[in-house]
Amino acid sequence: MATKILIPTPLRGYTDQLDEVEAEGATVGELLSDLTTRYADLRKHLYAEDGTRRNFVNIYLNDDDIRYLEKDQTPVTADDTLSIIPSVAGGAWS
Amino acid sequence: MTPHAQVVLPAAVLGELLAHARRAVPNECCGLLIGVTSPTVALSSIDERAVDIQIESSAPARNLRLSPTRYLIDPADHFAAIRTARARGRTVVGGYHSHPSGPPDASTTDHRDASDAAFIYLIVSPGTGAVKAWRLAAGRLGELTIRIVPDRECQTGVPDASDSPTRPAP
Ligand SMILES: [Zn+2]
Fold first, then answer.
1. In this model, does residue B153 exceed pLDDT 80?
2. In whole angstroms, what is the distance from residue A5 CA to residue A3 CA?
3. Which residues pair with B9 in a beta bridge?
4. Residues whose CB is less than 8 angstroms from the CB of residue B162 and which lie 6 or more positions away in sequence, other chains included
5. Residue B116, Cβ neighbours under 10 Å: how many?
6. Which of A10-19, A41-50, A83-92, B111-120 has the lowest mean pLDDT?
7. Sheet holding A81-86, edge to edge
8. Does domain B6-153 have CATH number 3.10.150.10?
9. Calpha distance B125→B14 (Å, rounded)
10. What residues of B are in contact with residue A65 (Cβ under 8 Å)?
11. Residues 6+ apart with CB under 8 A from B14
12. Which residues 34-63 of A are in CB contact (within 8 Å) with B?
């Protein structure tokens, strides 16, 4: 069962420039695991060395941030769309 | 610095960015930039090939840091901008933020937090109206040339271009 994953502009360099890819899994966590197996370069951008997801990576299932659902355990179907939204940050001097 | 890369910025969008920056003083404002990058294929690596980034509209975002020296774009606003862009056949080509009390030069924080080369960072100074564009090249943010154009010159050859009004600031 393949679920659509939308890739944001800053991460397309790791998905052969595709803005939309598919991955398999029954939960958000499984989907992301399959995604980063297919696109290995993406892994180090989404996960720290200890395997935890970087906190500047936001994951939306359809319209909702998965932090307000069941996080990585959130079930997914083929009709769902997962979106990866990187945090954009910075600032002024110092 | 990639001398051939150029950011095309409609004067009206610059006006919106500066207005947003002035409303946010003393804090930094931030938001997303929607437009077209051409040719897309040239984005696979940062190099000397000509890459035009055409900005068509801006999407103001909440600054989750609410700070005069820091910004963090609310991911919900980023998500909304991505959806707006996709609905128009466009992409989020970059983000913008303001430096309320300094020049629009990329700071140490901006360098540290910058992500992939396909994303441009526009910085505006509300006091002087100055604007600069930056993009990651060889691990550092390099400045891009900005060409400010009257709106009617910002044509991409694709229907449903820049005639949609941008949504007002939150
Ligand atoms: Zn900055």
1. no
2. 6
3. B148
4. B10, B56, B57, B151, B154, B156
5. 18
6. B111-120
7. A20-24, A2-6, A81-86, A57-61, A64-65
8. no
9. 11
10. 75-76
11. B124, B131, B148
12. 58, 60
Domain residue limits, chain A: 2-85
B31 close to A (CB below 8 A): no
- Out of A3-7, A19-23, B159-163, least confident range: B159-163
Contacts with A87 from chain B: Cβ below 8 Å: 72-73, 75, 78
Distance from CA of A87 to the nearest CA of B (A): 6
Q: A18 C-alpha vs ligand 1 centroid, how far in Å?
A: 29
- The class of domain A2-85 in CATH terms is alpha beta
A87 shares contact with chain B (CB less than 8 Å): yes
Q: CB-based contact (8 Å) between B157 and chain A?
A: no
**Residue A9, C-beta contacts closer than 8 angstroms, at least 6 positions apart:** A19, B91, B92, B93, B94, B116, B118, B119
DSSP class of A93: -
Residue B9 near residue B145 (C-beta atoms within 8 A)? no
**Residue A66 contacts residue A27 (beta carbons within 8 Å):** no
